[in-house]
Request: fold
Amino acid sequence: MSMSTPFIDFRRELHRFPELSGQEFETRKRIKTVVSPFAPVRLLDVGKTGLLLQYGHEQTGPVTLIRADIDALPIQEVNDFAHKSRTEGVSHKCGHDGHAAILVRLAAHLAEKPSLKGRVYLLFQPAEETGEGARAVLDDPAFANIRPDRVFALHNLPGFSPGTIVCKPGPFTSSVQTLIVTFTGKVSHSAEPEKGINPAYLMADFTLKSGQLVNPDSRSEDFALITPVYTTMGEKSYGVSAGYGEVHLTLRTRTSQTMERLTNQLLSLLADLSAGTGIYITTAITEVFFASQNHADAFEQVRTSALKLGYVFTEKQEPFKWGEDFGLFTQHYKGAMFGIGAGETSPALHNDDYDFNDDLIEPAARLFLELIDLQHA
Reply:
């Protein structure tokens, strides 16, 4: 059990009052309240529900951005501890409450550094889970003049020993997006299906054949995962032959190039299967996450800093399969995302019994501080 500190208390407060992606208004207010004693040079609202803190005044010198995500998930919490979620059907099941608390702890460290070369920005980013938050921040005019030399972020990692730092050069997280396919046929009486056009068999055929494009080997350059996540068709009206349906597939690859190829293969498959059926197809792509690309120098800085602090460091061989919208930052700026072990017995991310490991707040904040010292010495 962690010794309680103001930062652990704050983390648990965020856990009690979770907010979904794009709705983090109260979360931002809570962060503003807790960081105000740590005297940032500026506080800026960004990305609709995000917050940016500035430390250091100098317009010359290095610029470093450290990012944490702040949104929760539409998952009902099953834990029964004192800080359990008070919002029905919403909870922090990815540890973004912990990531935010780490950045608040870092703000307290930076408040004790009156002479800082250049500028450091701490970004509390909304809407990571939907892949919309990074884009909202980067598109915000308030962000336009901030051109970081380095961008860093972390994610807690269940399944790794507590406090272990995990990183790799190149792709750290996967490229992820969701393909939504709609099938519009024609409703008829279920006794006379020949008078309508029922999309059921086309939907089933497409779903089955999409499975042939999967390459589950995460070490392969051609890694491609296709996960059916949702389907719907017709109504629970047993005298009616369905005329409309949807299939939603989540796609994962190591690179954007493989993602483009996989998407085109699926669209080509759809065109072939639906030809001559009379079924009208539409497709849409949503929740796009670019692979987080760790720059070689930034990776080296993470490794150097972790070892200097005496942390256990593991260089991962293949990217994680999940997506992270920090990848969009790494499309624009040199940087790195790393992981910090949350414990081998911790429930997995997005599981209903997950909770962030409070013992990570201090060591993670110290690692970010070390990275800042490297840039701004």
Remarks:
- DSSP finds nine helices and 16 strands in the chain.
- The first strand starts at residue 42 and ends at 46.
